[in-house]
Amino acid sequence: QTSSVINYTFTNLSGVDLHSLAFNPQISGGSGFQIVSNGCGDSIAANAQCVIQVQLIGSSSAEVGTAYLDITGKSGSGEAEKDFSSQSGVINYYVADAAVADKLVIISPRGSESNLSILGNGIESASATFTISNPGTNAIALSSIDLTGVNVPVDGLSISQNNCGSSLSAGGTCKVIVEYGPLKPESNNSGVANLQIKYGNGNVITGTINYSVLALDSHLLITNVVASNGFIGNGTQGDKYHGTGCNTNPLTITITYKNMSTNFMATNLALNLIDGNVPPYYTVDTNQTTCGYGASPKNLNIGASCNLVLVAERSNMKYNDSFNLDITYPSASWNTTQGFISQNGFTYNDSTKLYVDYTQPALVSTVSPESGTSLTRVLTQNLVNANSCGDFITNIGAVSHESSIAVDEGNCNLSDDGSVSCTNNSTSATNKLSYQIDNLPESANIFMLFNTETSGKQLWYNPGIVMFNVDVDNN
């Protein structure tokens, strides 16, 4: 294989002419080295310049060597004429084995080696881009590209991008990006990994990644979680903290964070309640919370603890439903003299999440049939989600055009004015009343109104008013 043309530029810096010049190619190996164009001829005038073009011709075997032009001639004239000799600049060359047509090479980074060093602040990362080349004339199949080595950190070092595909075309290149980090503040690790590329018929090339992370000796730990004021359970997925509306105490969750550093105060510590996925039903108890959060950071001394206190707002949960109040422990960020630190993925009892439910007791009322010509209507009320809540008293207002009321089920008392009072609890949770309606001269909408005496308990009744329609057949 012949190289591209190489230009030698010669300048005669002396004040006399050079003549009878000869330019003789010299090469240390077996490859050919030839002049393809001589713009200098056999002389160069004083202070003149000229160009000679040369080429190298590859031998039939691999070699490394040097090539140059050996120059001889004379300078001056007459009695001042002298012999002249010199050499051109040296060309360093190598000839690859012809089998390179079936080999891949890593052309960057230099030496196929990269150094990735980061701080363990939960944010910083580093990457290395390996460029793989196919210098041959045939496409080469790629079998696999993997990270190998001893104790390679699977949670910190990874191939983040690979556009090499299943083969690399002749003369083509592709890139593999290896990324390291971010890692937690307590991380402290170093090692060597290999980017191993398998191709062709069992061939392998390898790049080297030297990685290291410096621990910042500053991290937080959740040391305690407490649910109180109406929550029971242990907060696991199998036994969630759960509460009901059977008392009026705030449903409270307290999460304790501790600064585990032995050297650094956590300055301007702030918990991120948005990224922590705290449900919208919670509010922060500003009187009991001692941790900084959001836009109100606070310092946390070495070895000190602080509390995040969350209160579930019952006023926002007035529906016949079970409300998911699960909490993913909020992330945190702070400063030390070593730099800025961000930490997420907090765990407590081997879980990144606290499981919490709230169930709203409800009284559900229906009338059957809702419409039609029938003068008998049955009101059914069911108390749900009220286990261990004790008694609820439901007052049902008098219904217009009623002629009589019968208690089919439940603990209900009838009044002379047509109203009804029923007592419900977990063992007697259903009322069923039959109403007889007077003959009506025309069709009418009739309303039933309810209210409850909950003795300080929260109860949602659905709905607080029920309407039914009595049709009259004028024919």
Give a short overview.
With 475 residues, the chain is mainly beta. The protein has strands spanning 6-11, 18-27, 32-38, 49-57, 63-75, 82-87, 91-95, 105-108, 113-120, 126-133, 140-149, 157-162, 167-168, 173-180, 189-199, 203-215, 220-228, 241-244, 251-259, 266-272, 282-284, 298-300, 305-312, 322-324, 327-328, 331-336, 339-343, 353-354, 356-359, 362-368, 376-384, 392-396, 402-409, 411-414, 420-424, 430-437, 444-453, 460-462, 465-470.
Structure write-up:
- The chain is elongated and about 150 Å long.
- With 475 residues, the protein is mainly β.
- The chain is built from no helices and 39 strands.
Radius of gyration: 44 Å
- Class per helix and strand makeup: mainly beta
- Shape assignment: elongated
Mean pLDDT across all residues, rounded?
A: 87
Strand content: over 45%
Share of helical residues: under 10%
Gap between N and C termini: 110 Å
Counting DSSP E segments of at least 2 residues, the number of strands comes to 39
What is the multimeric organization of the chains shown? Answer: single chain
Which ranges are low-confidence, i.e. pLDDT below 50, for 5 or more consecutive residues?
A: none
Total DSSP helices: 0
Largest sheet: 5 strands, mixed
Q: Strands across the major sheet, in which order?
A: 9-16-15-11-13
